[in-house]
Amino acid sequence: MALAINLRADNVSAFEIERLWDQVADYEDKPSMRTLAYRPHLTFAIYDPPEIEEKTAWNAMLSASAGGVQLPIAFRRIKWFVGPPLVLWAEPEANEIIGRWHASISAAIDPAHCRPHYRPGAWTPHCTLGTRIADAKTKDAIAFAKSFDRRIEVIFDVVDCVVFPPVRVIAQRELPKGIP
């Protein structure tokens, strides 16, 4: 099992991302995001226990987000990570708060313990839309991503710590409303 710390959207604003999940599922060999039974999110770090304990990860997230409020994050582009399999994701507009939170987590827990793609200098903030793009549908999935021309704003209102698979929330805190 792995351990992740995330920023999650647990409100109706997440509907547009979930709708994209359903559209992207058409390119997958089987739908990946609905299968998670977990809301849209941005992951700051993934660790493989037993090196990092749940309490250590959760305390790093609490410290990073201390005084934080619900974050409106806008998405204008869909991008992809080359696989196999290809992964489609929504790219958040630049947001200094999520960058600051990531840096705080990396300062609290030695990044050498984090999976390589989540380490400083390698981390790409993203909201995953599909992780199982079928090889035969890669070109169509990329065309879909390139054709995306909308702006979606999602209010991220919860920080959490989860273990997976399957996703199980082990700690969470709702962020208060306010001005970021």
Describe the structure.
This protein is α+β, with helices and mostly antiparallel strands and 180 residues long. The protein has one domain: Cyclic phosphodiesterase (Cyclic Phosphodiesterase, Chain: A, Alpha-Beta Complex), CATH 3.90.1140.10. The protein is built from 5 helices and 8 strands, in the order E-H-H-E-H-E-E-H-E-H-E-E-E. Strand 7 and strand 8 form a beta hairpin. Helix 3 packs antiparallel against helix 4. It is globular and about 40 Å long. The mean pLDDT is 97.
What's this model, at a glance?
The protein is α+β, with helices and mostly antiparallel strands. It has five helices and eight strands; from the N terminus they run βααβαββαβαβββ. It has a four-stranded antiparallel sheet, with helices on one face. Strands 5-4-3-6 form a four-stranded antiparallel sheet, covered by helices on one side.
Task: Describe this protein with a few key phrases.
Cyclic Phosphodiesterase, Chain: A, four-stranded antiparallel beta sheet, 180 residues, 8 strands
CATH H level: which superfamily? Cyclic phosphodiesterase
What is the helix fraction of residues, given as a range? 25-40%
Structural class: alpha+beta
Name of the level-1 CATH class: Alpha Beta
- Amount of beta strand: 25-35%
Low-pLDDT stretches are: none
Instruction: Give the CA-based shape.
Output: globular
Question: Helix-strand pattern, N to C?
Answer: EHHEHEEHEHEEE
Strand line-up across the major sheet: 2-1-7-8
* Distance N to C terminus: 33 Å
CATH topology (level 3) name: Cyclic Phosphodiesterase, Chain: A
- Average pLDDT confidence is 97
Determine the number of helices (DSSP H or I, runs of at least 4 residues): 5
**Could you give the count of β-strands?**
8
Write down the Rg: 16 Å
What is the annotated CATH architecture? Alpha-Beta Complex
**How many discrete domains?**
1
Task: Specify the biggest β-sheet.
Answer: 4 strands, antiparallel
Organism: Bradyrhizobium zhanjiangense
Protein name: 2'-5' RNA ligase family protein
InterPro entries: Cyclic_Pdiesterase (IPR009097)
Keywords: Ligase
